[in-house]
Amino acid sequence: MNKNILTSALAIAIGTATLTGCQQAPSSNVVVEQNVVSAEQQAQQFSAQFIESLWQLSPTWALYSGYQKYADKLVVPDDFSRQQTLDFVKAQRAMLSAINTDELSPSTRIDMALVKNTLDSMEWNITTFKSWQWQPTQYNVAGGFAQIINGKYAPLDERLDSVLKRLKLVPQYYAAARANIENPTLEHTKLAIMQNKGALGIFSDDLIEKAQHSSMSNDDKSLFESRVLEARQAVMSHIDWLASLKQDLDKNGARSFRIGSDLYEQKFALDIQSDLSANELYQKALNDKQVVLSEMAKISDKLWSKYFPNTAKPSDKQAMISQMIEKLSVKHVKRENFVEEIRNQIPALEAFVIKNNLITLDKDKPLVVRETPEYMRGFAGASISAPGPYDKKANTYYNVTPLDNMNEEQAESYLREYNHWVLQVLNIHEAVPGHYTQLVYSNLSPSLVKSLFGNGAMIEGWAVYSERMMLEEGYGDFEPELWLMYYKWNLRVITNTILDYEIHNKGISKEQGLALMMDGAFQQQAEAEGKWHRATVSQVQLTSYYSGYRDIYDFRDEYKALKGKDYNVKAFHDEFLSYGSAPVKFVRELMMEK
Ligand code: ZN
Ligand code: ZN
Known about the structure:
Elements: H1 2-24, H2 39-57, H3 59-64, H4 79-97, H5 106-129, H6 131-134, H7 142-150, H8 156-167, H9 170-180, H10 186-199, H11 205-212, H12 218-252, H13 260-272, H14 278-307, H15 317-329, H16 338-355, E1 368-371, E2 382-385, E3 397-400, H17 408-417, H18 420-430, H19 435-444, H20 448-453, H21 456-472, H22 480-506, H23 510-521, H24 525-537, H25 544-563, H26 569-578, H27 584-593
Parallel strand pairs: 1-3
Antiparallel strand pairs: 2-3
Helix pairs in contact: 1-2, 2-4, 2-5, 4-5, 5-13, 9-12, 10-12, 11-12, 14-15, 14-22, 16-18, 18-21, 21-22, 21-25, 22-23, 22-24, 22-25, 23-24, 25-27
């Protein structure tokens, strides 16, 4: 059935392409059946088959997106599967290019652009970036199995049956991984060892035990046990192999984790989808850093006598700001009230947004603030847990981890970080009108493509943008302390971009990187070390917060100028969010057209 839809969509698509040619050359006598299927319908059919074929090609990606139809398949990452992906890209591109995007609704036009970008990324990763050769972290079977074992989408017996089938190719999977790995970085090799050790936890006696108590036949039960043991053995052998590879790299040197300017620009274009290049964004970040630092100095200068009546003001501006931040940070909520305080702030934020006519909020979709469930507590923090696109009716939760597992010293340090003022900025970012509000809008945009292939820079950028927007609209009554803390928080986002760019393009050392964060942006050592590590095993992702923010802010200025006295901030936000999680540059195109 799929094949039929596919063929007819393709045929119709080609028909429309001819029509376009027709418009360009009116003398042409080709007239094809118009209105049989509109471009819009064509695009919808194309999207549906694209997603289904993609899940078939990448069952693990599907599992992470909440789609379990191909759960029993494990793809062996060999030449054959890479060729299959390239063939897929080629076939999908042909179908896509036959759709006349000019005739599409704005929302569907964005969908087609997102699909195109997804295809470009898939191809680029295989043929140009080749992370499958130099990032051993790409190989770990645990994630897919965990999705099935912990997922509640089907009865346990059914899921165990998928596990049994999926287990079959685990040894081949790791054999292919070893055949692929060539000249890897030391950092990815170390991380792969650590992560695969974690994977051993999945193939536990407990899992075998579960199968023993299931409704499986006795033959299947013994097959299950032997496959789990084989998988365990395969992971252990792989870890041994990586460990000896690591020794070799330690001794003889390894490929640098820094990807260099060419690959960086290409990856930036595909992942961020901004009109700016990575270098242009970096220049903006350098500039913003100076602006923010000078604002922080002005505020600290003004507040000095209030907080340090008997202490001379340091002549060094960085030292003055740093002391002021430390002084203010002691004002924080008690550890036992942390969750409660967050719970109480949400209604106040909503009331502010409504009273000041900033965004239309959907009152039917309340945000549930809860203590983070035990199984999700990797580290302390706050996060939004959103229902996946295949599970839209589920609640949206604001997970807040209580400080129960911290000793006094850790709790104090954490509470100073999330002090009285920063906690408010955090709630704006995570909840209202940040991630949570954006998500409600995103779920209204009924496109599966946008939910699945939405733009991370837009999503993070919106949350970062909303912090500043709230303060500019008067949230907190222009209290200088709040602004100072906001700037510190914003400086972190700016510094993420500078750090990531300078590591991969300018080859700065770890010492320089740590100084950039600690001396340049008032961060603590632990945070800076963590960020450094993250930047050695990822590329570009750290720029997404700032790039999305900068793009939205700059676009708003442009839009304001266009609308003149008709500009209205609420109308801007409502329309901006109505396009779902699309790259800012596409939303800009559509809104500037009107
Ligand atoms: Zn304290
Ligand atoms: Zn965020």
